[in-house]
Design brief:
By secondary structure, the chain is of the alpha+beta class. The chain has 3 domains: about 110 residues, HIT family, subunit A; about 55 residues, no CATH class; about 140 residues. About 40% of the residues lie in helices and about 15% in strands. The protein contains 12 helices and 10 strands. It has a 5-stranded antiparallel sheet, covered by helices on one side. Strands 6-7-8-9-10 form a 5-stranded antiparallel sheet, with helices on one face. Strand 7 and strand 8 form a beta hairpin. Helix 11 packs across helix 12. The longest helix has about 45 residues. The chain is extended, with a radius of gyration of 31 Å. The chain starts with a helix and ends with a strand.
Length: about 425
């Protein structure tokens, strides 16, 4: 027993605990985001030695061995990506405080913080990294060539409008996936990481029993007895009248559902324009019935799904057969279209043509590729339009890919 105590004493010393804490941090699950053939990833995994300055859960800082000036340092995220817009926000948020500490510790009077993206932008290692470069004099440190271009204000304004529109789309299309969030929470709890409070706001669902609780909480003592008595009487009566009511309501609902199902087979006859014409509004002043509104919604949903399915088929064929499609797939950083994830339709529009004989249905849905390392990795929006004629025939007109991170949309050839 004495020997066992002596053996365990070494492991409970503060210095020993700190050593194993640092070791666990450097070999944790963050290495899942690294690659095998990147020099910076090897430095993070300690496979290549370095003059480490600071290491956190999401960042690693060390001295540059080919410095532009004394004190030249690098800060890299523990997430392999070639371009900055591919790095998650939580990793980027960890970089600047470290760069600030390095500049303060070095006592740099003047310095540059540099980050390059792509070979044309002088990026030497295809792993996002930030330089902290002291500038002690004009000759030492970073030399910047700043060629100012004279641009008309109209061109600047046009570029401003395009960027503003793309930024607005990027901010407004922020989506939350509950399943992915729950998985993230489980991973964070499993590895003992702090839970993020800003990812999603959890709300308690409103149930039928929440309403009496709210009423009782806002009423006086005299009214509470009346409310509780009324609820008790309603519960007692419902135990006798409930079965009769449910059988009657269920039979009527089944009959109505069967009739709607038979009509919904000819769904193309119930397509309704997203923006009704002025003539249609003036001729049909009456509000549509519940059955008409339901059939219209069924027809629109069916048309959306068919157009989405045809667009996905065309995109898969485009990626697999055409040279341009294979080039686009390489820019996604993928080998096969099956690695892509096709989301549901999140926006659609229906336009009536030829007096209602045809309809043009346009749909928007997301194409996800979160694991890609290419310049077009991440996600993009698929915009497809098709003509829907009698008997539900779908004639695809146009399919294009769009993303706020791209310079221009990718129009898919349907030939």
């Amino acid at each position: 027993m004495t020997h066992l105590f002596r053996l365990t004493t070494h492991f409970i010393k503060p210095t020993t605990l700190q050593f194993y804490k640092q070791r666990a941090m450097s070999t944790s699950a963050t290495h899942n985001h690294l690659t095998d053939d990147c020099i910076f990833c090897k430095i993070i995994r300690k496979e290549i030695p370095s003059f480490k300055l600071i290491e956190t859960e999401k960042s690693y800082a060390f001295m540059d061995i080919e410095p532009l000036s004394e004190g030249h340092s690098l800060v890299i995220p523990k997430y392999h990506a070639e371009f900055m817009h591919q790095v998650p926000d939580e990793y980027l948020a960890d970089v600047m405080p470290i760069a600030k500490k390095i500049a303060a510790a070095g006592g740099f009077a003047q310095y540059n913080v540099l980050q390059n993206n792509g070979p044309l932008a002088n990026q030497a290692v295809p792993h996002v990294h930030f330089h902290v470069i002291p500038k002690p004099d004009k000759e030492t440190g970073l030399g910047v060539r700043w060629n100012v271009q004279k641009k008309p204000m109209d061109e600047i304004k046009a570029m401003y409008e395009r960027m503003k529109e793309k930024l607005s789309l990027q901010l407004n299309q922020k989506r939350v996936y509950p399943l992915a969030f729950q998985h993230q929470l489980k991973q964070q709890q499993r590895h003992g990481l702090p839970l993020s409070q800003t990812t999603m706001v959890q709300r308690r669902p409103l149930s039928i029993w929440t309403i009496p609780k709210i009423i009782l909480a806002t009423q006086g003592k005299k009214s509470r007895g009346l409310i509780l008595g009324t609820l008790g009487a309603a519960t007692f009566l419902s135990s006798f009248l409930g079965p009769v009511v449910w059988v009657t309501v269920g039979g009527a609902a089944s009959l109505a559902s069967w009739r709607l199902f038979r009509k919904a087979k000819s769904w193309w006859n119930y397509l309704t324009p997203s923006k009704p014409d002025v003539d249609t509004i003036s001729n049909n002043s009456q509000e549509p019935s519940f059955a008409q509104a339901l059939l219209s919604r069924i027809g629109t949903h069916h048309a959306e799904e068919l157009v989405r399915t045809e667009a996905i088929k065309s995109l898969k064929s485009y990626f697999e057969t055409s040279s341009k499609g294979k080039q686009v797939l390489e820019e996604f950083g993928l080998d096969h279209p099956r690695d892509l994830v096709w989301e549901d339709v999140h926006r659609s529009e229906t336009v009536r043509l030829d007096g209602g004989k045809k309809h043009r249905v346009s749909v928007n849905f997301w194409l996800e590729d979160q694991a890609s390392k290419g310049p077009k990795g991440g996600s993009c929006e698929v915009i497809a339009s098709a003509l829907v004629s009698g008997q539900g025939n779908i004639d695809l007109e146009q399919v294009k890919l769009s993303s706020p991170d791209w310079h221009e949309d990718e129009v898919i050839s349907l030939a």
